Amino acid sequence: MVEKVSISNAHPLKKDYFSQENINFENDLDEVIIQKILDELSPKTDNIQFTISKSEKNIQSIGVCRNSSWNEINYDRSKYCYYYQVLKKSSFDLKSRIKLLDFELDEIDFKKLITKVQKTLMLYLKELSKTYTIKNNLLSFRVKSSYNNQDYFLLIYSSIINLLNYLYENYHIQINKTFQVPYYSEIINENKFDHKIKIIKKHLKNEKVNLTLINIIEHQLNRITDIDNENRLTYHELDYFIKYINGLTNHFLIYEKRKNTTEDIIFLLISNRFNNLKFIKFITDEIRLQLESTINGNDKRTYLLDKRNAIIQCFPTIDLTYDPKSKEIDQVLLEWIEIELENIIKHIEINNQTVNEENILKLKTTLSVPEVSVLLKTLNDSGIVSSESYSELARIGSNCLRTENTENISTSQLRNYFYDKDPVVIESIKTRLIQALNNINKNLD
Questions:
Q1: 1 pLDDT tier (thresholds 50, 70, 90)
Q2: Using H for helix, E for strand and C for coil, what is the string for the chain?
Q3: What is the C-alpha separation between 11 and 17, in angstroms, rounded?
Q4: Quick one: pLDDT band at residue 37, thresholds 50, 70, 90?
Q5: b/e sequence 362-394, b meaning 16+ C-beta within 10 Å
Q6: Mind listing the pLDDT tens digit for each residue in 267-289?
Q7: Is the pLDDT of residue 353 over 60?
Q8: C-alpha angle 32/33/35, rounded to 5°?
Q9: 245, 196 in Cβ contact below 8 A?
Q10: What confidence score (pLDDT) does residue 202 get?
Q11: pLDDT number for residue 238
Q12: What are the beta bridge partners of residue 240?
């Protein structure tokens, strides 16, 4: 198989073809290339300067460099090479000028300059993107037989991206980190975000993790991988996400055979200082659901204390925060838990106070427990009081009465004494009722 490729030394990929040391061309061309191939390729043999020959993977490459005039090259190909050379020169001049001004300007003015350059380049990208399509597979330089406006646009786009990368790498402190990182930035590529994000998504899909939590995590990751995402990550977030994505990837690779639960992922994100508002709300909603399904106040308190201890033990694993303008996630959650604990403790105290008040409101009687039981049964059987059953009567008596020796009368005790016909107890109640009747008679006189 034979392929003929023509390329100018002004092309962006010239190094792939002219990187070898120049070899003076002393032999005839037919001595370098067999006649059959020469007849098929029909190369021009005038003004030859040097040849290049190399073999790689059983493929032999023979390059022949010759002087030619611009009018021998198609206009679109000349234009493509010309744009590249102009952009290359402009980028070099801009970088040189910035380096010089770094010495001439004070810190405040130089920061303003860098921010202005950064803003201008971002505006250029925005305007270009309105007219032309950005596709990942088209952003690399290629040797083509013809070029169009889309190719010229990609040259300009790549040049601007390279300048923004230069500002980020060399003037990291001065740049405005609230600006969004452009798609296909070399900073993203060199950190292998695409590959690492695929690992994270794959593991989340295979784990027993809450779907809402997965969506929260993937929503942030998509801000890096989606070309048409209007809410792309900022330069500050880039600093954070480099460490955040590395942390998540390392966790899943280290514990590859372990099945992570929703709680495992929650504590992993807390350790990575992911103070995203939706994530925080997800955690508080999960805790609140658990509290609502728990009836006992002390059980609720114990659950919250366990959560608080677990969050305290989530030591930060990176030195950056997802949102530096907001509180740390562990601080927000601990403050929220403290408020919930205070409310639960208040409810426990109120319930205890109610129980105590019920004890205080019990009527004290001079009767013994057996006498109380006989009196209640007598009143019920006489129709003076009414209850649906002796069990209900015993329960009411237990809740409402206390003796001098017994603070809390047992319901079962009262119920058992209903059927006890101890003559001494019955005689005692009879005497008391006669005394009560005599008191009534006195009031009638």
A1: very low
A2: CCCCCCCCCCCCCHHHHHCCCCEECCCCHHHHCCHHHHHHHCCCCCCEEEEEEEEECCEEEEEEEECCCHHHCCHHHHHHHHHHHHHHHHHHHHHHHHHHHHHHCCHHHHHHHHHHHHHHHHHHHHHHHHHCCCCHHHCCCCCCCCCCHHHHHHHHHHHHHHHHHHHHHHCCCCCCCCCECCCCCHHHHHCCHHHHHHHHHHHHHHCECCHHHHHHHHHHHHHHHCCCCCCCCEHHHHHHHHHHHHHHHHHHHHCCCCCCEHHHHHHHHHHCCCCCHHHHHHHHHHHHHHHHCCCCHHHHHHHHHHHHHHHHCCCCCCCCCCCCCCCCHHHHHHHHHHHHHHHHHHHHHHHHHHHHHHHHCCEEECCCHHHHHHHHHHHHHCCCCCCCCHHHHHHHHHHHEEECCCCCCCHHHHHHHCCCCCHHHHHHHHHHHHHHHHHHHHHHC
A3: 10
A4: low
A5: beebebbbbbbbbbbbeebeeeeeeeeebeebb
A6: 999 999 999 999 999 999 999 99
A7: no
A8: 130
A9: yes
A10: 87
A11: 84
A12: none
Mean pLDDT of 415-434: 86
User: Which amino acid makes up residue 298?
Assistant: N
Strands 59-66 and 48-56: antiparallel
- Residue carrying structure tokens 């067999």: 34
Q: What is the pTM of this model?
A: 0.59
